[in-house]
Amino acid sequence: MLELLPMKQGVILKKGREKFFEHRHPWIFSGAIEAYPDDFEEGQVCPVLTWGKQLLGYAYFHSKISLSGRIVSFGKSDPMMAIRENLLSAIQLREKLLQNPEINAYRLVNGEGDRLPGLIIDKYDDALVLQSGTLGMDRLKTLVGETLAKTGKCQALYEKSTGGSRKEESLQDQVGVLWGEDRGQIPIIENGLKFLIDWRHGQKTGFFLDQRPMRELVLKYGSGRKVLNAFAYTGGFSLYALKGGAVRVDSIDISERAVSAINDHMDLNRFERANHRAICQDVFQFLSKEELEYDFVILDPPAFAKKKKDIPSAINGYRAINRLAMEKMPKQSLLLTCSCSYYVDESMFREMLFQAACEAKREVKIIGRHVMGIDHPINIYHPESDYLKSLLLYLD
Length: 396
Description:
CATH superfamily of the largest domain: Vaccinia Virus protein VP39
CATH class of the largest domain: Alpha Beta
Strand order of the largest sheet: 16-15-14-17-18-20-19
Largest sheet: 7 strands, mixed
CATH topology of the largest domain: Rossmann fold
Helix content: 25-40%
Number of helices: 11
Strand content: 25-35%
CATH architecture of the largest domain: 3-Layer(aba) Sandwich
Structural class: alpha/beta
C-alpha cells in the first residue's frame, strides 16, 4: 500500500483556487496548482493544501497533463480508508437495487460516479473485469484487489486497462489475470438472453453494459418490425429485437470477429437463422447503397470524437449516417440513434439530428430519450461523466 506524503509536503493550490473543493468536483487542473512537493512521484496520493496550507483533502496526481489531479477523499478523511469504503458502498448499491435473477452482469464501479476516479469494474457472473485509466489508479490496484478479495463475492479478477486516458499519461496497456482462473469467454445472462463475454478481445471490458435499458426498449417496441442493427458489435440489440417479436433482423458490423460472435449468440439463444442476417460490411457503405426497408433502425456507433479537436468531423459522421437512414426509411418507422462521444454533448447531438432531418426532408418526432441504468450512477458534482446519449425518433 502507498505511504502518504507528510502534510507539509502536500500539493499546494494557487491562492483562491480551492472553490472546486467546496463544490466537491473530483478533478484538479494544472492551472490551479502552485507547487508540488520536492520529492513528488507521479501517480502518488498527496494531501491537497490551500495557498495558506490548510488541508482540503487527498488526491493522486500526474503533473505532466492538464487534468493533473483526481480527488479520492475530501477533508481529513483517510484516503485509503475512503477508497475501501467507496468500493464497498458501490457493491452494496448494486446488491440493493439490482435484484433480478435474470441479470448477472452489470457495472460494479463507475469511476467518479462511485467516487473512485479512474476506476471501472464490470461484473460478469462471478468474475470481475477491472479497468484503470490513470497512473494514480494503477498504483492503487493492489488496495482495490485486496478489498474485492475480502468480500468473497467473486472468483476471479481480470484486468483490461486500455484506452485513450492511459495514452494521455503515456501508460502501456495492461491485460491479464490479477487473481483467480482465466476461463476465457464468460457466459452471462441478461433478461433471459445468453451472451459469451470475450473480456480479452472485446470492446471495453467485453460488453456494452451501459446500453441495457435501451436494449430493453428495443424488446418493447420491436414486435412485428423489420429491424436493422447497425454497428451491431456482438448483437445485443439484435437478440432483444428477436425476443421482442421482430419478424426480421439484419446486423451490420465491419468486424469479422463481431459478426462471428453475433452468429454464435443467435445459436446460443436458439433463434432461427432464417429470421436473421449477420453482415460484415462498413455501415456507411451499407446505408449508402442499400434500400432500407426497415421500420426500426438502430444506430449505435463507436465514439467518433476521441478528442476535442475531433468534434467537427464527428458531427459530420453522425449527421451522414442519420441523414442516410432518415432518407430511406419508410413512413411510421422508429430510429434509435446513439452517441457515446464524450466531446459531443446532448445539445450538439440534438442540433446534428435537426440538421439531418432537414437534409432528409422528413417529419421527425422525439418519443424517447436515453435511460440510465442504476449500475451507471453519475456523481451530481461531476456532470462530465454523463457521456451516453440516445434518442428514439418516430419518422412520419
